[in-house]
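User: Quick one: structure for sequence A, then sequence B.

Assistant: Sequence A:
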Amino acid sequence: MPLPGDRTVSALTKPNVLERWSEDGAGVRSLAIDDNVITMFDIIGEDFWSGGGITAKKIGAQLRAIGAKPIEVHLNSPGGDMFEGIAIYNVLREHPQPITVKIMGMAASAASIIAMAGDTIEIGAASFMMIHNCWVMAVGNRHDMAETAEWLAPFDQAMVDVYTARTGAEGKQVARWMDAETYMSGTVAIERGFADALLPSDQIKVDENAKAADREINEIRAMELTLVAGGMPRSDARARIKNLKGTPGAATEPDGTPGAADTDLMGALARLAASTRS
């Protein structure tokens, strides 16, 4: 799949997708992990707030460490940077051995692209896959917006082509699903060809500590995108949230349990977001 020439542009997951992952996917993990497993239980792309995130560079290093063996990818992600997702898809497709993708909780947005790299795709009965068009934040006049739309069109078409090749569905139908920002349950994903089989429930667990940590940091990510969508420069949004919150990475305590101050933080962030819309 193609990558943009200008990597300063990010195609992002929308705030409402992050919120849905907090409800349905937070804390979902694998029960057992072998030495040929790559776990993706985070946002796609580098994450300012946690210092983590899933990148093509990290996945490439893991593949080299595993060597020429069959791979399992355990996936539960709300997506993130669509272009980083495309890069990870390309890296996985170059692996010489079969790849099995297991969708533990959610494969949304960029994570759904990564899922398509699987020679076999298994999805939990209560898990979801979500596909949509590239979503970016742009500023300018109508000519700038028209140029942005024209620039994005090939990437949307590339995703249509990948989904179509995997599912056998007609391109126009896939494009309609992307236009509608479509969520598919496990059974629907299988019916439509986005997955091959249901993942046994005994391979999935919910880690309550991880669930609390996932939800906490996801609130910060969603708030940042909300502020930027309201017209605030990303650097300013991060600076304001950082001033309210403290240093990046502090959202995930070692025991994964949010502190009492989190309620005050969320209230302050909500007021900040409201001020940008007024």
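Sequence B:
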Amino acid sequence: MGSVTRGTTHPNRLRRMDRWIAAVHGRELRRAADPLAVDLGYGAAPWTAVELLVRLRAAAPGARVVGVEIEPARVAAARPYAREGLAFRHGGFEVPLPQRPHLIRAANVLRQYDEAEVAGAWERLCARLAPADPATGSRGGLLVEGTCDEIGRRHVWVALGPEGPRTVTFATRLGSLERPSDLAERLPKALIHRNVPGEPVHAFLRDFDRAWAAAAPYASYGARQRWIRAVRTLTADWPVTDGPARWRQGEVTVRWETLAPHA
């Protein structure tokens, strides 16, 4: 279920997303009896799936990864890289696995679809996630869907649970950033066409640029200190969900409902 995408990929491209997943979702993976992650639409080469396994196992040693691709030739090309904990399967948004995964990562996939198709894809993928379990405090599986540039310097993703979207994360290599709104070109498909006056994501990036400009004196201490100061200013008006430990990584996470497009 889905369409074949360009499949371009590069080693280490998804490092920012992977580090965030390990930090934020690692506890959920560790508590699962058999933590399963899916790299959906890994592309013409299997590097991102291989790297995801390594990074997840640093946080959850029992994690397994299955790379799922809709193009059969890509699955065949990837299978020589399979090993303990890493497999490759043919499929799409239906995620054809008997077990509900605790993580689905879909990077640079929906960007090549129409905006009108995003909600349906999200719904199908969220329905495949491991369910929440109030008895244990588990919030269930996590879908991470977003877009990055070719070498992973700029990345924006949406995190969704079985109930739907939760947060939006902006992540960047601070040394290459001129202003926060540079990240607009990497907004996921659900938001990229909404970066116009009157839409929440446009207001957020406008306020972020203003906070960045006001934090210019901190640039003498480095781009990281300027970013931290700008994000701290943002917290007065926007529901930032993380703290300095993540800000230092060149990240900021905001609740989805405050950036969600107007109907």
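The chain has a mean pLDDT of 95. The beta strands are 36-40, 64-69, 86-90, 103-107, 142-148, 154-161, 164-172, 251-255.

User: Thanks, that's what I needed.
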